[in-house]
Amino acid sequence: xxxxxxRGVSGGGRLSGNSHDFWDDTxxxxxxxxxxxxxxxxxxxxxxxxxxxxxxxxxxxxxxxKHGASENGFLSDPFSPGTSRSxxxxxxxxxxxxxxxxxxxxxxxxxxxTISITTSSRGHIYRGYRRLQEQLVSDLWDIGELxxxxxxxxxxxxxSQECDNCIPCFNVSENLALGYSGGKEYDRHCGQMSSxxxxxxxxxxxxxxxxxxxxxxxxxxxNVKMTAQExxxxxSLTKRMMMLDEEQIxxxxxxxxxxxxxxxxxxxxxxxxxxxxSNFIQAGVRTILDIxxxxxxxxxxxxxxQILTMCIANYEASGSxxxxxxxxxxxxxxxxxxxxxxxxxxxxxxxxxxxxxxVDWDQKEAxxxxxxxxxxxxxxxxxxxxxxxxxVHALSLSxxxxxxxxxxxxxxxxxxxxxxxxxxxxxxxxxxxxxxxWTSPLTNAQGFLRNKAAQxxxxxxxxxxxxxxxxxxxxxxxxxxxxxxxxxKCYTARRPGSGPSICSKGHDVESPYYHPLQACLGGxxxxxxxxxxxxxxxxxxxxxxxxxxxxxxxxxxxxxxDTLNWNSAVRNFWSLLSPLIFSDHPKRxxxxxxxxxxxxxxxxxxxxxxxxxxxxxxxxxGKSVWVMNVVPTSGPNYLPLILDRGFVGVxxxxxxxxxxxxxxxxxxxxxxxxxxxxxxxxxCSLLDLFSEIDRLLRPEGWVILRDTVAHIESARTLTARxxxxxxxxxxxxxxDERLLICQKPFFKRQANSSRMREGM
Length: 760
Description:
The protein is an alpha/beta fold.
């Protein structure tokens, strides 16, 4: 008899209800054995399901509800065709949950990885980005140079003999042709691209200057443009201290004669109330501006007392005071009071000295008014430099305003009858409590020796000095000493109309760059108004206090770090120069290169000084140098900080010629200048900049540039055109930067010949 169908699960499959599922009675034994086998297979089938679906327990709670029970009381098969849709839904749900979990884990890991990037890692990314930018700028620069034609790739030609002492921006004949007169033809006039397109050669008999300190007292006559008559003729006190001896000019700054420099400086110290000039430092005098310095003997004598004297004088085609002073290894630059302010910050010098400096301190009224007219014309030229149509209306209103203001100024000055505009500029650069020393026949204490005109001039200067709050300390022979007030309240305590007004905050520019002379007192709005007696004395002044650094947004740690970096850099520079200097000297195998002499250089130009760290490091290393610190107009202005540290410096635009004569400096240094200039909208090319460096550099002088790899490589390609010897040096501490060390060869111009030859 047929038996009822046995429903079960075996191997994860399902048994059907056809005839193959029925068994005969005669096969009972086989059937029983088969059932035993089926039971074992059923057990193994459940095990197989457990392996294939390890997450089945997630749905165990509601499995009965999902599958339900059959009519015969058996649980329905969850994997039967009737439940396939539910099975797919479960699989999809599981898949979705898995994807969500993976996504959450990925986002969490990415977030933690992002915030775990260190500052240094971000710095590397930023530097890499900057490197790409700089490389792009450098490539565009090179393309621009190459686009000018193959001729630009040739070596630069030498200038004619007439240009041996040429200074762009001081072309007298060109200035006269442009209509400048009344002394303004000797003033500085820089137009667009005022640079030299050739290499200036030294005179035929030029010789390498003697090393310091011998070179301070003896210079080669052929190295400066001067006649024997100019050497022997009497002039200022310091000019009388010269003697011509065959090929040399000798200076006797320590002469025991009655009018010797030593006696003169001793007299000034006594007039101030000091024992002698050695006490200048204790009195707060570290930096002196010497106007019309003669040939620098005043500063040469005081240098041994740790006093730093900056000489300024007008441009002179022959017998230049500035050129001779620089040849002696002393600080100097071309500068005048004709119509513009000096490129120094306000409150910069502790003393200003004028010994027969040929400056009319009682400046005439007409010149003052013409100076105001010049100011008006200067404003128009500046305003129209980059004129856009949308600004025309605003400019016209501004011109009307300044024209009315000019008329008011002229009327007011005519009525008040004030003179002494040059003394106002002296007052601007003089620190509170600083000294103004004037030696002139006009100041002779014996009044009966003055004529009526001289007496009038003296009275004018004396009264004007009183009006600007200067105290007359002493008057001896031809020398008079004033002291600038240390207290601002002196200006407000003056009688109305008794002196020039104080500049408003908008007109009191701390670091003017050849702005027109002003008729108001500047520097009074500065946060740097600190009397010299309250300032730290040298050399402590080189390390500014926290309060002074806060003016520039700096902390003592910033200056300390800068000092450490530069101390290390200077040591490396000197060690790098050793093999270069002595590479052509014979030596035995195994011998080390000798150290370079401490006085191998004297005049140093730092083209991008920043905090003056290079200057500070050279002094700490015991190098017998002085540094002209230059702050580019295209970068942040730290010139006041440099001057407050007791160094000398100046503001300058490197697309213009530097105000000095050719062959001035033994070493030119620049860190980051190429990157700084590349970031600006250029008015000049890299070749213009390098040709100006060549003009300033003495034969066999050094150039040290530190910048990014891209800019150094661009600069290196130009050194061949300038005929320099150059090599690139890697910096281990910073793979993004390189050093470019160059030396200018000594090319000589043969006498009575246009041929050139290199000095041996």
